[in-house]
Amino acid sequence: MAEFLDITDVVCPVTFVKTKVALEELEVGEELEIRMNEGEPVRNVPRSLKEEGHQVLNLRGNNDGTYTLLVRKAED
Question: Which homologous superfamily is 3-72 in?
Answer without folding.
Answer: TusA-like domain (3.30.110.40)
